[in-house]
Amino acid sequence: MKKLYILVAMLLMSITALAQDGRSLYNKYSDYDNVEAVYISPAMFRLIGKIPDVEMEGENVNLGPIIKSLSGLYILSIKQGAVADDLAADVNRFINKGQYELLMEAKDSGEVTRMYTVGDDFVVNSFVMLSHDGDETNFICIDGTIPRDKLENLIADAAKD
Amino acid sequence: MKSIDEISRLSAEDLERISLDESIPVPEELSARVQAAVRAADRQAQRRRWVLPTGIAAAVATLVAVGLTLTRNPEPMDTFDDPYLAYAEVEKVFAKISGTVAYGAEKVSQSEQTLDKLSYWK
Which residues does chain A have within 8 Å of residue B70's beta carbon, measured at their own beta carbons? Predict the structure, then answer.
């Protein structure tokens, strides 16, 4: 009987944790006025993965090694104001509850950018970037089963260019 | 001593006759042991009575929680129909992330250079 209670409690806790993710934030804020929202679904990522040798002009980023490991992308850009403050507070709350680890923080003339990941030494299950400048708050959340080394190499290579 | 099978085959009259036979020695603690066994059996039966309703209640609570979570947090609509446009957006995002990392790396490099200069003048 005790095992059953523990199992149910764990299940409910995991459901609660599941509710605090990029998707719930996207659903909460994407319909507000002055909010730019972009969502790319797991189905679309599967479709992208089937395109042979995707090469796009413009940005110098080779996503080939990781594109198939992505399963969701949520972007919210909100003009500064009460809604943007609420988003930042909600993101910080879900970061603190979700065992995210701060990857990097950059501050420059009032602009603050923080990057977080959750996963283990080999796999990143979620990447979050939150930035505020004077005018806008940007939230990016990438979900997937991304090999950590490939993600780090990709970002480092692109940063060199 | 009789086995349980032999005892179960005895008639009611035989059992009554044996129970009245005072020549058969009765262990002193037998009564207490029987009472304890009856109490334990009662407790177990009582516990079993709660297993099914509690299990059903737990299953219902779990289903309600899952249902609420899924209905309150549905999958959003895809922003792009075209995978090439979606890919371009992903690329833009990674370029932005890389730009921030590059900025951070540049600052670290500048700090290192400053530290090198300071250590040279010491």
Answer: none
Task: Return the sign of the alpha-carbon dihedral for residues B59, B61, A9, A17.
Answer: positive
In order along its 122 residues, chain B shows pLDDT tens digits of: 778 888 888 899 988 888 888 888 888 888 899 999 999 999 999 888 888 888 888 888 888 887 777 777 888 999 999 998 998 899 889 888 888 888 777 777 777 777 777 776 66
> Considering the entire predicted model, what is its pTM?
0.67
User: A27 vs B73: CB contact, 8 Å cut-off?
Assistant: yes
* Interface contact B110, partner A, CB < 8 A: no
Task: Pick the closest to residue A38 from A159, A116, A142, A121 (CA basis).
Answer: A142
CA B100 – CA B94 distance, rounded (Å): 10
All structural domains of chain B with their residue ranges? 82-120
Q: From the CA of B36, how many Å to the nearest CA of chain A?
A: 23
Q: Report the residue from B65, B74, B94 with minimal CB separation from A15.
A: B65
Which residues 47-106 on chain B approach chain A with CB closer than 8 angstroms? 47, 50-51, 54-55, 58, 61-62, 65-66, 69, 72-80, 83-84, 86-105
